[in-house]
């Protein structure tokens, strides 16, 4: 997951279909070898990932133009400000370009104090080390956690053979995993006894 990456949330105002949004994004001119654009959807919410694959001035210009074009879609869809990443699992040393990407969303409790605490426990010096080790064990190459209002979004890059159902069961049985899920449940609108992969809803890739 590159540091040259921006994430946004789009909320449908009710007059934009998936095909119309994809068509408008496809009409924006940029070099696919320089810029990568991804769109994921869950219900009426879209999660957009824009990544600069190069560092030259032409890529930066295209990147800025793409952002401007997306902001002009405000007539039909509400676009958020750039989302801040509150937790990032550093990529493994053996990470390759061949991976599977999964984007998921989860609703948090509508409580500013809890949201502030949720951010704090995901700081690099606060998150339990065993939880990071478990991610490595299960085949999570890279992960980023983002917040938008009272919704959390995860971008998870895994090995190509990663199976969410099969590996998710193994994940839930790794050391300290059940304790961590019980710990974070107080922030989430979920059954506190649920496993991690039962809490998060998979977003459908559109582009």
Describe this structure in words.
The chain is α+β, with helices and mostly antiparallel strands. The protein is 31% helix and 29% strand. It contains seven helices and ten strands. It has helices spanning 18-26, 57-71, 112-121, 129-138, 164-172, 177-184, 196-199; strands at 5-12, 35-42, 45-52, 77-79, 85-89, 100-107, 140-148, 151-158, 201-202, 204-205. The strands form two sheets. The chain has a five-stranded antiparallel sheet. Strand 7 and strand 8 (151-158) form a beta hairpin. Helix 4 packs antiparallel against helix 5. The longest helix is centred in the N-terminal third of the chain and has 15 residues, at 57-71. It is globular. It starts with a strand and ends with a strand. The mean pLDDT is 87.
Brief characterization of the structure:
This protein has 207 residues and is α+β, with helices and mostly antiparallel strands.
Descriptive tags:
207 residues, alpha+beta, five-stranded antiparallel beta sheet, 7 helices, globular
